[in-house]
Structures are given as structure tokens and as C-alpha cells.
Amino acid sequence: MIHLAVLISGRGSNMIYLADAIKDYNIAAKITVVISNRCCAGITLAKDRGFPTRVIEPKDFDTRAEHEAAIAAAIYDHRSKYVFLAGYMAILSGDFVNQFAGRIINIHPSLLPAFKGLNTHQRAIDKNVSTHGVSVHLVTAKLDDGPLIAQASLPVIASDTADSLAARVLELEHQIYPFVLFGLAKKLLSLSPKGVLWSAPSNALADAPAPMQDFLAQCLIWPSPTS
Ligand code: GRF
Q: I want to staple 102 with a disulfide (CB 3.0 to 4.6 A). Which of 28, 83, 135, 192 is the partner?
């Protein structure tokens, strides 16, 4: 059973899709705690679902190290092995990240290494790219830079605005993050401080629940093995 903490800062839709996938597809995983660095809609949703929640705000601590230590303590208190960042809007220090090396994962709305950081959709439009998408990756001390776990892509269309593109990328996010959790729970995916290894990627998708499989078959990009 995979025990995961989900860290959020906003509306929490990826957290909800993870929660729904666990339930709908009987994934052997449990969200042990939802942690946010601010009061936000996602925390209300998490409470409604009955998940333990913690709002741990930087303003209540003297230093960033103390704030992060409180977050780490909440993760340990709730016996979470994995940490899924799902719209957590703060940069985590190397010290924090390193204590979860190989167990902390992020979802980022671009095809990394393109468009690290914020405003990815507008930047994709400004750059006139023809393809955009989402990446799930291991988190390392460098921003949006760890080994890729999976990506999914879509074509940018001429009429796209940042908002329309964000909405379509979000649909990819809502399928790919649960798929990664599925892979982890089924031991088709192994993560370690050294990197990412999918055993037989095509089988991993073939094993996935049908709706996930149908959706991702057209857009999933496998990473090159890194461990
Ligand atoms: C998503 O676009 C995610 O990729 C990014 O922040 C957004 C969070 O959305 N890191 P939500 O809070 O999960 O709805």
C-alpha cells in the first residue's frame, strides 16, 4: 500500500483526481494527509473527503527551515512514504527535498525541460510552439528539473489562449498523475534517488484502468530510463 502526502496551495483538482482514482480503480494507495502552505479551496475539498489536513503557513515560523521542518514533521506524523506535489506554490529547499529523495514527485504544466517555472501556457503561446503538455518528475533541489517519470502532450491550436491551453493541459494532468500513482502501486514503476524505471512501459499502460488507458494512449510520452 502506497501512503502519500499531497501538498497543495490552491484549488486542489489534481489532489481530487488522485483521490477519485484511488477509489474508482482500487489503487492500493492512501492519501494520509493533505498539506497546504495557505488556506485554500483544496483544503476544503480535502476536508469534505475526510482526509486529514494541515495548513502550515510560513508566517507562523521565523525561518524557512522551521517552516519546512513543520511540513516534514506532518508528513512523518502521517506515515507518508511518498510526497506528491500538486500545485504546491513554493520552492522547496534542497535540505527538504533531499530527505525525501526518490519519493517526492511533482506535476508541472509543460513538457520539461521547456518552460520551467510559472506562466507556462502563455509562454508556450508566445513562443509559438506546436506541442505543449505536462510532465511528472522526481523532485530534486533544482527547480522543475528532476528525472522525468512521464509526460503527455497535446497540439497547440491557433485559437488557443493561455486559459484554453491551461484547461486542456489540466485534462492531461488529471489522467497522468493518477496513472503514475497506479504504476507505483502496481510496482510497474520504481523510483529511487538514482532515478526512474518503468518495467515494460507498454505493459504498464495496457494494465491501466480502461478510461485512463484510452485517454493516455494518444498522448503519453515515456521517459528514457535513468536508473
Ligand atoms: C496544475 O496546473 C499543476 O500542474 C501546477 O499547479 C496547478 C495546480 O492545479 N503545478 P490544482 O490545484 O491541482 O487544480
A: 192
